[in-house]
Design goal:
With 152 residues, the protein is mainly α. It has seven helices and no strands. Helix 5 packs antiparallel against helix 6. The protein is globular and about 50 Å long.
Length: 152
């Protein structure tokens, strides 16, 4: 029986496949959209309502809401191709690691640059860039691991 171990995968994995990078980028952008809706919406709510919660509590809630909105968005997208129940299960099982790393990167950048849970016109693009770049190599690797979008 022949199987590829993770060590073998690392040795044979090529990081120069344009097709896979495009697919990983496309997938990451959809995830970023879903995460950003819940994450930025939560931070904006606390900022504009002037409810005084500790920054860590706001960020944890923002991460949870970002994960929820990402799963909802991915379920809606997948439901156009498969039944809703399967779409929901697939969205839940997609990549929690990717979503969590995206959320954590966005929130760390926000706290680092603003000193708290604050949205400003200049910090949001930086947060989104960090949220996109952080999980992108993992998403590429995951596509390669499962044999999707392989290059010759």
């Amino acid at each position: 029986m022949s199987s590829i171990s993770s060590c073998d995968l690392q040795e044979t994995l090529k990081w120069n496949c344009t097709q896979t990078w495009k697919r990983a980028s496309y997938n990451t952008l959809w995830c970023l959209l879903g995460c950003a809706i819940g994450d930025l919406g939560t931070i904006a709510f606390f900022q504009f309502s002037e409810i005084n919660w500790p920054t860590l509590s706001i960020m944890v809630l923002a991460i949870i809401n970002g994960l929820i909105t990402s799963v909802i968005l991915e379920t809606i997208i997948l439901a156009r191709q498969i039944d809703i129940r399967t779409a929901f299960r697939t969205a839940l099982g997609m990549s929690l690691i990717s979503m969590l790393s995206m959320e954590i990167a966005m929130n760390l950048v926000d706290v680092w640059l603003t000193g708290g849970a604050k949205l400003t016109p200049w910090v949001v693009p930086v947060m989104l860039i960090a949220g996109f770049i952080t999980p992108l190599p993992y998403n590429y690797w995951r596509l390669k691991k499962w044999g999707l979008d392989c290059c010759g």
